[in-house]
Amino acid sequence: MTVRKILTLPDPVLRKKSDKINKIDSNIKSLMDDMLETMYAAPGIGLAAIQIGVPKRVVVIDLSKETEKKTPIYFINPEITWKSNSNSSYEEGCLSIPNQFAKIERAEQCKVRYLDYNGNKKEIKAEGLLSTCIQHEIDHLNGILFIDYLSKLKKDIILKKISKNNKELERVIV
Ligand code: NI
């Protein structure tokens, strides 16, 4: 297992649509192992493969607290099959948009169909934080980021902050 580099905005790869996986082989399993390791090291509670530059429909999520036993869920080719009409909102962040947060409204409950680590077909009903996290990660597979739900004004403020931070980082390197 290897900790991989997480891509951040404005990297255009984050806007790519990820491809379906046809065969779960050892390459896909080691990709999932690396993703989990990378997510834990960040630390974060969810990661999509595109965030480490791999445009494949794979997501890992673990909502366990640091002191609790780890409970990773691996989603291959996840698809949302149902969303509740009621919404909930969380202050969302993203490992690919460091230090930026915004309140985002999403379906409070959803059902998701996917293949697990061993290729078994699964469908679960998620609610609350897990529901939000699944929707956020599946968005990544379609090149969508949480800032896309914000007004143009709020989105521009975040994008400006990011480019400012990047410039400051360059100064330090130079
Ligand atoms: Ni994210």
Structure in a nutshell:
With 174 residues, this protein is an alpha+beta fold.
Describe this structure in words.
The structure is a single chain. The protein has about 170 residues and is of the alpha+beta class. It has three helices and seven strands; from the N terminus they run αβββββββαα. The chain has helices spanning about 25-40, 130-140, 150-174; strands spanning about 45-50, 60, 75-85, 85-95, 95-105, 110-115, 120-125. It has a five-stranded antiparallel sheet, with helices on both faces. Strand 4 (about 85-95) and strand 5 (about 95-105) form a beta hairpin. The protein has a single domain, classed as Peptide deformylase (Peptide Deformylase), CATH 3.90.45.10. Nickel (II) ion binds near residues 94, 95, 96 and 140.
What is this structure's SSE topology?
Elements: H1 26-41, E1 46-48, E2 58-61, E3 73-83, E4 87-94, E5 97-107, E6 109-115, E7 121-127, H2 128-141, H3 152-173
Antiparallel strand pairs: 1-2, 2-3, 3-6, 4-5, 6-7
What topology, given as strand order, has the largest sheet? 1-2-3-6-7
Helix content: 25-40%
Rg over CA atoms: 16 Å
Give the cofactors and ligands.
nickel (II) ion
Instruction: Kindly name the structural category.
Output: alpha+beta
Instruction: Give the name of the CATH superfamily.
Output: Peptide deformylase
What is the average of the pLDDT values? 95
- For the termini, the CA-CA separation is 32 Å
Largest sheet: 5 strands, antiparallel
Could you please say which CATH topology applies here? Peptide Deformylase
CATH architecture: Alpha-Beta Complex
